[in-house]
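note to self: dont lose this again. the chain is below, predicted strucutre after it. 577 aa total, dont forget to put it in the shared folder this time
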Amino acid sequence: MAEVGNELQRHAAEEHQAQTDGFHLVIDALKLNGIENIYGLPGIPVTDLARLAQANGMRVISFRHEQNAGNAAAIAGYLTQKPGVCLTVSAPGFLNGLTALANATTNCFPMILISGSSEREIVDLQQGDYEEMDQLAIARPHAKAAFRVLHAEDIGVGIARAIRAAVSGRPGGVYLDLPAKLLGQSMEAEKGRKSLIKVVDPAPRQLPAPDSIDRAVELLKGAKRPLILLGKGAAYARADEDIRALVEKTGIPYLPMSMAKGLLPDTHPQSASAARSYVLAEADVVLLVGARLNWLLSHGKGKTWGKPKQFIQVDISPTEMDSNVAIAAPVVGDIGSCVSALLDKIGNNFAKPGAEWINAVDERKDKNLAKMAETLAKDTSPMNFHSALRVLKDVVKANPSIPFVNEGANTLDYARAVIDMYEPRKRLDVGTWGVMGVGMGYAVAAAVETGKPVLAVCGDSAFGFSGMEVETICRYNLPICVVVFNNNGVYKGIDKNPTGGSDPAVTMFVPGARYDKMMEAFGGVGHNVTTPQELEAAVNEALRSGKPTLVNAVIDPAAGTESGRLTNLNPQSSASK
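---
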């Protein structure tokens, strides 16, 4: 009996002495909260964190540049409603990821940027540590929240707070600072396990006030020319069925912002996309659902908005109201709860808009659609944006469930108008900030998170920001087809150096560049196409094969306009006119 007692004591002592460390606690805390993927770039001091995460069953996608990894994490958050995680090294790597963090915050994408950092005592005394930087202070103005963990027993709290901050209320980017010394700290394994937190209900429903619903419905009932405007917040909310029911039950024309396209098919009879300018100018009451009156909507005023109108705004953030113009009926709460409440209040006796308004919208739509069809039908040589996009319009129609990533100036603007979307959260583009260079990061995350083939269509300028990630696409053998619209320059490829010197114009690239060779260099498939028929064959082959593919689509260098459709934001010198 004494021997048995001694054995039990020895076994208990061994269990008591079992240790864990900061590396494993970070990984265990993420896995405990259902986070399976990490996007990042290994290096000092987080190399072993990435290695151990992979060894412990997480999928770690290692990029060539932290900004692209951050963009991947951000769009992963949008697609999953869980915070996408980006892992970077200290100082320069952190700064590279900071652009993506700020973009995630601006776009309301839940994301956590986790960066290794130098030790506090050295940073605070500015003693010149390796990559010394007060990263927490730098991140705070650009993130929804920022935290630093100094003790291993607080890792569970730090990650729990980061998760809740990223997804609750209006989602956004969160920074989590992990000094190198923290990762190597050890503690008893059982104590460490108990220190971890599984976040319960990280994004609780926020119900709207009943009187705000009453006010909104009364305003809609009195409208002669109502309009529903859907933003990407409506798509993120995943209240798809209720949003469709609201549109169809009221009979009100709706206008989707670019990343809200597909909440209802763009071919839906109530879609007013083809009459955008008309409905914005003529509507008298506008119901905003998950959309902000920012620069993308001319701040809700000016010539774009034409006749006087009243706004109903559904948003989870009360401070969004009245940010540019007066909101007559603010409805504050999560979009799912707000739309459900609006539906209940509207009931089955809502009087749909009069024939005069509906007919006027349809007449403008039919006119613009006929004009667009005529433009798309032209076979130009070399291809222009419209003849190339006509092909991709048909590809997306035949493959409505694939994610479609889009960036550029003209490539983005024309594609928004030409390519119809049929399912929600399939169009991923530059969003609120209009930041170029998101393409490859978005494409990688879309492939990883959805498991579907991805079509990414980029201008040659936009592609240049993240083009090296074609190696990442090949390394992980992701089913991504990248189409680069190559017109030899920014906006156009025909500008001249005004001095007549040997340097090219500032907007010019190397003429006739073969971006397809980049993909081939890393083992992927490359196509160089000059006609719509060649483009169609190359893209369809890529989607069938699932192989990493880049299609260099040669576009007329004279095609395109200055700054796409944002010429007013790029003022020109009177001397150059």
